[in-house]
Design goal:
The chain has a domain of 61 residues. It is built from two helices and no strands. With 103 residues, it is mostly helical.
Amino acid sequence: MKISLKYRVSILAVCLSLFFTFLAGVSAQVRWVTLLQRSAAAMVLFGAVGYVLGMWLESHIRTMIDPPEVGQHLDVVNEHLVEEDVEGFDPFTAESFERIHRK
């Protein structure tokens, strides 16, 4: 099972924030309810920040690996394959402009 980069960054941010939140809560000797509340808030906040950072990193790394092509895309046509006499095709020119009827 392959986990994308945005989920990995998000999970890493959540785990680190939980670890430091528990560490700070235990060292400050706060109540367990307060510690759980702070941990839940840290999970939501750092999970969202990690997800957004992971999305940015994915797009940034993708442009580094596959840089956008610069220049023009041209179609090369073999002159021998182009049919000169196509029946029913009348190009739009100044002379054929008079045949257009308005209603």
